[in-house]
């Protein structure tokens, strides 16, 4: 099982911060004074950043993060208001305000000025609206931090809320709503709203549309938006994180300079006290027929919020036991009985505010769909076992030790992600515990666990049935799909309890993979990936970490073959076999994960099998041996095959219901690599049986090259010894092949390829890609610099001003070092032909803008991209990443990052201008046009 200690279910989407404005909201100024709070932020011994918590005179709470190694500076500001605070007169208003806010301010009135400033300097920005807060953030090269902060902060003082952009942003929000109205995850949240307390604010939609966001009697949309802003966007309801290489004193000065004059209107904390689930909403069967093919069962228990008792970790304790895959546990029982493919646990005790729920998620087999009563009985049996035998100090201490070990070994993460997460967490977590909350365990208190278990009863339950076979009749306003509700009978409850008494289970045993050794004492001898073995069809590379050589590692072991590319049947067989084998090892992977070791079994080129092992490295070599031995020994059953093939076919069929933008991006990869499309794979799957899968497995083991890459705390002689063992496990007579990677399609300059297809989604989408015929790292980097200018202007015109779609983007990347520049638009109001025409016009018109770029503008964009390459790694995995990806590309000089820095430093304005002429408006490339026609007539 997968543990979800707390899932923050944002019903809204993450939105780009870009748009425009004109009607000023004037706010008074306050004196900029900083009040330093004597709070020590508890951090990991491996974290070399400095932290300081303070509060400005206007009661705005600030966390400063100083990281001298950062090439970027970051700001994240969270406001304590979200979709739960929407007025009934304007559903979706909080999200609409997020859209309107960054459309110009009094000091910076240009609608797209902020976003253009950030992006052309090599930075990025975004925002999201959650149920209880809204978060705005950006990252930018350090030399532009002052200018970015000045623009960013002015939106929280003097936003324009220009009337001219009201309808434009209504259209943008409508496009966003349209994009997700058939998404099962979103629809399920609406079903939750309709089966809960109708008085709770979750009963309203969180992302509005043209029907909900409109002028009404006694409710003018713009007036309501401004009133909402004035009421809720108050300094005492804001958390700010400033992070960068500046020292703490400098960051404090920046906070004071830019944010101390945000108005504090003494807004009251908008706590939601209305319960989300009442007694009337309990004891329900809830039926939903998914848009995609899913077979899911959610066994849900209503909970009172216990977040204030977080230090006792009761929810995490129960997740730890409930989610175990050890022999005799609930997860193993459901799989062994062929009732479930997988299962997981989700605690959301404050989902509604003062109450929430815990859910046991079960991904059902076909047999499980028909045996729901047995699954419910088994769940109740296991919960009762925990209640009677599972509350003990030994489990608590093991969990606490694992949490503390993870914290102590946790190096710092990505600074942007850290800032965004911390600014939101500051609403709920004491400042001193912002970094170590997950490792704080108060003295073992059984009563805290018993209080949660007391609510996990058959009388306090709701059962969600999410599979195609259900009968439904009630429509869901504003969203696709239908649902139904039926009361759970007293007889059903009695039957489940009676059946539960006859199901024998056991609690998990101690995890023998867990150890607390903090440093393996392995010296840094190889500072660059070095080939240490190349014979007998095995190629192995090893590198040590320069900065994080303690007890962590990243190991790749790939059985590289070409068999999966022989034909469609083998392609399908390769993926079905991998899925079966991954499922076969679920217990081992779960146990390793709890001990701080992540094992991923993933596909690689040509049906190859990739074992990716990350985390505490002491047992990696042994685990790799166990994985190889398990692969050789594994003999899939007919039942396993049927289950895996059905799941694979369902996943392929579901892809046809992805958004057109998602489908277009997937098609680009498939077409460029001349791979089979999803429809072709689905057709080929009809001719695959267990015999074909077994034949594929034989070919995989008998025709391959074994690729090994290890980075971090590994001893060379131990790795060499392990390789000898691996060689003995593999068939002695196997055919050794050269490393295989599927080649690209032939790329011919001046050629245009068109792919047009009708999709089930209502929206239309166009992806227009330009592909260079020759590999060039320099040209690929040139396109990335160009895109810093192109993306923001493309978005501003087609999205902000013309509202041709919610998803409007351009991208620069490469496949096997062949540069690609692509534009993508998904729209619910413009057809694919008109989109292509407008994209072509923009592409040609923008040539003049590129020709007019100044040297200073070019250097800012180039240096912004350069800063990303020059960024020092924050942890071992960032350090290893550059080498792992070179390893995948067979770039065994392992110098892609170094060469990228050198080429960027040499890049000139004339280079990118010539690149635009050649690649984007000229004919020295191949154009691949993908046009997807939605079901809506436009």
Summarize the structure.
By secondary structure, this protein is an alpha+beta fold. Helix content is 39%, strand content 21%.
How is this fold's topology laid out?
Layout: E1 2-4, E2 14-15, E3 34-36, E4 50-56, E5 61-66, E6 72-79, H1 93-101, H2 113-120, E7 124-129, E8 134-141, H3 145-154, H4 166-180, H5 184-194, H6 221-232, E9 238-244, H7 248-259, E10 284-288, E11 296-304, H8 314-322, H9 330-336, E12 340-348, E13 355-364, H10 366-369, H11 372-389, H12 393-408, H13 415-425, H14 446-453, E14 461-466, E15 474-476, E16 479-487, H15 490-500, E17 530-535, E18 538-543, E19 552-560, H16 568-584, H17 586-594, E20 597-604, E21 608-616, H18 620-633, H19 638-655, H20 660-672, H21 678-685, H22 690-702, E22 703-712, H23 716-729, E23 735-736, E24 752-758, E25 764-771, H24 777-801, E26 807-815, E27 818-827, H25 832-851, H26 855-870, H27 876-888, H28 896-906, H29 909-920, E28 926-933
Parallel strand pairs: 1-12, 5-9, 10-14, 18-22, 22-23, 24-28
Antiparallel strand pairs: 2-7, 3-4, 4-5, 6-8, 6-9, 7-8, 10-16, 11-13, 11-14, 12-13, 15-16, 17-18, 19-21, 19-22, 20-21, 25-27, 25-28, 26-27
Helix pairs in contact: 1-4, 1-6, 2-24, 11-15, 16-19, 16-21, 16-22, 18-23, 19-21, 24-25, 24-26, 24-28, 24-29, 25-29, 26-28
